[in-house]
Input
Amino acid sequence: MKIAILGYGTVGSGVYELLEQHSHIQVKKIWNRPNPDKQIPLWCEDFKQILLDEDITCVVETLNGIHPAYECITACLKQGKHVVSANKAVIAPYYEYFKQLAQDNQVSFLFEASVAGGIPWIHHLERAKKANTISRCYGILNGTSNFILTKMTQEEKNFEQVLTKAQELGYAEADPSADIDGIDILNKINISASVAFNGKINPEELLTCSMRYISQADISYFKQKGFTLKYLGDIQVKGETYEGSVLLNAVDTHSLEGNVFDQYNLVSLVGSNIGTLKFFGQGAGKKATADAIVQNLLDIQEGKKDQQSLPLNQLQYRPLDSHAYVIKSSKKIPEQWIQAKDSHYYQTTYLTTVQVKELLAYLDDPQAVVVRIMNNLG
Amino acid sequence: MKIAILGYGTVGSGVYELLEQHSHIQVKKIWNRPNPDKQIPLWCEDFKQILLDEDITCVVETLNGIHPAYECITACLKQGKHVVSANKAVIAPYYEYFKQLAQDNQVSFLFEASVAGGIPWIHHLERAKKANTISRCYGILNGTSNFILTKMTQEEKNFEQVLTKAQELGYAEADPSADIDGIDILNKINISASVAFNGKINPEELLTCSMRYISQADISYFKQKGFTLKYLGDIQVKGETYEGSVLLNAVDTHSLEGNVFDQYNLVSLVGSNIGTLKFFGQGAGKKATADAIVQNLLDIQEGKKDQQSLPLNQLQYRPLDSHAYVIKSSKKIPEQWIQAKDSHYYQTTYLTTVQVKELLAYLDDPQAVVVRIMNNLG
Output
């Protein structure tokens, strides 16, 4: 099989290097966004050279961001080329569109590396759902935010110090917003929902709160109460309805989630027969992510059939459960929301996700810290 | 697809019940060891009726133990029927024989449920090894022993009390030996090695020590030092050599292993690209184990190809690493083995597995408690 790689950053170059061990998958061309300033092997100047090369039956897309990834994936699928993508930002909104294009052109669109990096998460969702109704997906899905929380907890440093260190180590981007404001996790939860529930959600309906206002004092406050803070994505369905969130959760110090450190991920599914399954591994990193892409290339080579039935079902947002929250705000929270108050920490109890959104809109405090008390980690 | 089920205990009946949801897989006959005293649906008196029924293309074997499972599996494969087995006791010694028979007769021999129950462990070993060299498999592979250690640790009860409770709850057999003396884990490690390394080991060479002599005092001793005791199976390879063990390990209280409670399993692999992957879930239980069997039936229905290349490579036993051990014995350990002594606890350090075997043979104390200090959980 002859392939091309789009993008030659950490992941793209990782795929190129791993494929040197696989003589039956040959990289023929590599394209990067215009004017790369580094030496790229097999570099071709024009994406069209890849598109029109009939030898190339499969394209690996590692460009990041929506454009030009959207145009490249669309063109390749229409041209009858398989596509393997690691790019959650473009898959999350266009999942159904790409899957339909792939079906129409009798090729595969695969994306294991887009969620939880080296963990075979997408593969296992697809496998589990053959014999199970999956009702929930949740977990630690972002290595950068978990690295920051780990160092804040273990080394008692503040957020800014740890973020700077993470940037120096290459674990955080110069603009860390996607990782610490929840966008990255939201994309991964959205993709997981498409696969696990065969369902379409509206990501704007999820309660998504940044983790960037967490302080060392907050971490200590929860530690004293036997909790560790983790930044989790969570989505649950019941029939045609769903709820979901991306926010800081206070988890039991003796939960598995509470003991996942540094940049590692831990992601869980709940199935009707198998109960809770949890998968731990490297959610990012050159070799681990490249491995997920190579696995998808091997799937294509083996002619593995696509499981997805289209169109997706439109799911309706409806809070399925009440949750207890602790909210820290410099502004005063109205009495009717509060169960208890402890310095700046308002403990509200049994609020649904919708009510928390109302409360936050009312508060108008962009730096409020919202923490859900998580007592149901399966 | 029409199938038969051999054995109608927890797992066999679980498969029958789950398959009521799968209209395209029909159970035609069920056979149990002679003279069942309960009402079994679709019961047939004579195994030969199944063997000679040409409608039945696949047989699920949940008989437990070596005989008559060995004869039944052999006969079915020779007759050109696919076999799905949950029976680790017969698979571990006859893995290569069954796989070869299946190849010769162009059918599948699958066994997901035999290791780690509902966790898709075997499936994932097969998937990971397509793109990785796997160097190690280890983890909590036995629910009964983990349940006992959990209750001893959390409720400060002694071994006998907890074993009795586990037997009442159905988590432990009347004769608990397979679970607490390591045979069950040894079988699972042996099967994992066959799959992960394509390798044949001699299970007698592994350092296997019972967990039945552990006391509440031992648990407290390790707890004070920041360790939790877990009963782990572990096998590592390097080239054509291997080492392995089934014994109590003192793991960091903040490791994932240290926070796996009750009857749950957590099993890990180390791959050359993906690093460490860990899988958590129900290692036993009716629905979870039946789910693993149903997944294998779906694999057969989809015509999934068998990955195994035969014959297996004969691996040579050779300690790959030194480990530190703590040994409690009523007998005196010679000075040259000891790094430190603390009441009855002899701390020996950097002993290879072979040396521990020598030491134990020398001691001649069947009730010695051997604990490895595990500082490499990936």
Notes: The two ends of chain B are 42 Å apart (CA to CA). Chain B has a mean pLDDT of 94.
